[in-house]
């Protein structure tokens, strides 16, 4: 019965904070006692009977044995309660409660209150839920139990509350400490004479399994230590699990790129496609002179997958990616969401490159780009208003260009992918060597375009400035209002506040010379009788397009602007002739073709099948043979387009398309070479020279295919994605470069051409001239000479001479077969 009395006292301790007074109801056990356990200076109320024995030697007290009648008496319960609280001071019978005892009781009371509040609310919720479910069943037999409701509630609590496991951990620890402390206080042991000491001992059992070795020898303390220690092991296991899981989740968050990027003046690339690696390489090259930079990539691909692709490119055996000190940071997210754009610090980026998301058709991709631009504008209304920050947007269809300009006229620089590739292909098909020149000019590996101000050259004409830079090629001017003039007139004066556009290796690699080089090589300007005459008239051409692209209508329109009148365009693909007109209209998105110079011929067949390549026969809209036919060796240009069907095969589209292109190039080259050798044998006695076959030009998407082309001795190819990536990187570094490159790819502006040296130099009269002399002579045709290729070198060996050659003032001997690279307004 003694234990029952102490248990009653412990319950009184736990319940005391929740009621200022206990009122007798029904049996009159308690009249009006106020159990103020923590602050009363008097430990008992009236009628309180305490029997205590004070031992002088040990200064310890023991509770007077009470009869069962006394134990059931309310006054005895109050006496026991006050007495236990008074045990906080060893060796004395002071009425005041020690501070440590008060703190312990406060903590235990707060925990008890929290648990009761939580359980009460959960019980109320489950009760209401049970009633609602019963009502919904409409008096049908209940098919669930309270255990089912509790399981449902626990599942919801642990899945929605990130602190659920921590709460469970503290709850179990609290229950173990209170349970152990209560049993230790109730137990008949003089070693635990206060709540705080019992609670501390119980806590040590929870956190330290070895603490039970110091437990008193009595049965109850040892049983408590064993039970609480076992519970403590469970708590410890739960703690390890929670900590391990939290660390694992944090590491997983870091792996998946969920943390925010804190960078400024960085380059941000949005989305990931087949141009991403090339863009990263070009940005790394651009940052090389500054010791590296930071590039951030945001894509919906997993961060680990993007990192693996980058690592694979870095470790590639052929043409490995070199970051040159540039740090690449990956984050996973949706580039059209403002929160994800904030995560990559888009509002502090120097430039944003928005790539077309993969696996989208052209219209859907361009619509996504529109949302992308609007998301950037919504993120920061002042984005691009300072003229320093801008976004380079990749589009698929030229018809959507004005839509982007309408919503972002100030900061969006648009690169129409298909349009640019189409112009590249057309230029390179007619001059296959041009692919080498464009590849060298567009990237940061060699010379690229730069603007800079040179006050010492104010007032000079463009002709005079032509020979003023030893390490750069002057190309044009940029006015104060941003107007760019490529290939200006000779007498165009460089005004104060304007900038000079040059081709140079780096922005700090050139400066004006002393200006003493003579301009006499260009004295024939204005006196046509003294200038060499060059016949530029071209006969009609025969051109073969193998394959089909969605923008075929645009491609044909562009070609019509380049070729002489009467030229023929033969279309060889698998689309039936009666469906091609509809495909050219693109479902009403394109206008009917109005050709001035071209005559179209339709051939149905597959360009990787020899049988079809031997039967290049024209058919009408009904698929009937018209009687016109031609052989491969009769074409002046053959263009092999990336196959539209292969491109729809997902991530392997580039590889699949390149495989077909490679096969087509090999077959066509082999067939034309056999035809050429046959003609040489057949007409060996003819005095007329036999025209050699043209070089078929193929569009290559994956740069890794380049090595296979070299092995197969295929010289005609355009690395379209590589060049477009280089263009986007250059525009990201300097937005006005977009105007320059647009003019170089346009039929209305100064395009890139490869001229024979005989156009500018009469080799019979003079053959020893410097590069600057040739450049001055080219000005009579309003052409800017940017480089040359000697006849005895191929383009790979002449790489440093093609664009911005060294030793410009040193005379060299020119000979037949030398090629001059120029920017010119006319073909």
State the main characteristics:
6-stranded parallel beta sheet, disordered N terminus, 827 residues, 15% strand, elongated, alpha/beta
Report a brief summary of the structure.
With 827 residues, this protein is an alpha/beta fold. It is 41% helix and 15% strand. Helix 17 links the parallel strand 13 (542-546) and strand 14.
What does this structure look like?
With 827 residues, this protein is of the alpha/beta class. Helices cover 41% and strands 15% of the residues. The chain has 26 helices and 25 strands. It has a 6-stranded parallel sheet with strand order 5-4-3-6-7-8, sandwiched between helices. α10 (303-314) links the parallel β4 and β5. It is elongated. The model is unreliable at 1-97 and 525-529 (pLDDT under 50).
What overall geometry do the principal axes of the alpha carbons give?
elongated
Strand content: 5-15%
Distance between the termini: 116 Å
Specify the structural class.
Answer: alpha/beta
What is the number of strand segments? Answer: 25
Helix content: 40-55%
Number of helices: 26
